[in-house]
Amino acid sequence: METFLVVAGLIFLLVVFMYNTLISKKNQVDTIYAGLDAVLKKRHDLLPNLVASVQEYMVHESITLEKITELRIKAMTHSLDSRETIALEKQLSSMLGNLMVAVENYPTLKANENFLHLQATLSEVEEQISAARRAYNQSVNDYNNAIEMFPTNFMAGLMHLERKEVFSIPKQERSSVDVKNLFQK
């Protein structure tokens, strides 16, 4: 009888340990996502000023500016889950990359002091997003490992925990910069 109680006690402790580990990893992902979301909001707050400062110079890139504004409004007004937010932010990052490339064609805009300040601030925010994205991806990796590895995968199945998506870099940003063409303009 004592052996049975000891084994039952050990199994109970193992179940409690697995449950608490999974909850801890899930909460860590949620906390780091909240930090990432705060930095993304900072970028969203910066975008109207950036769009307003370049709008008068960039008549031919109005589609890019409209798309950035549309994506920002969607990100700010809709309650999106983490997957939708990640997809939307990838689009926004891509459009901002296109905008910064287009700026190269407007020498007066490149020399504008307000634009230079906004560009530097945006660059700083993008670095913060990059750091937050790394922390988020690491916590998602730990969480996904915990819900897929034995024996916690059984407990995760009972708790209906699902894989979380990592925040990856858009393909356009992975390509290397064509330095030769960059300096010919």
From TrEMBL:
Keywords from the named record: Membrane, Transmembrane, Transmembrane helix
InterPro entries named in the record: LemA-like_dom_sf, MamQ_LemA
A Pfam family the protein falls into: LemA
Compartment(s): Membrane
Signal peptide: none
Plastid in keyword set: no
GO cellular component: membrane
Topology in the lipid bilayer: Single-pass membrane protein
Matches recorded under Gene3D superfamilies: LemA-like domain
Family: Belongs to the LemA family.
Protein's name according to its UniProt entry: LemA protein
Lineage per the UniProt record: Bacteria, Pseudomonadati, Campylobacterota, Epsilonproteobacteria, Campylobacterales
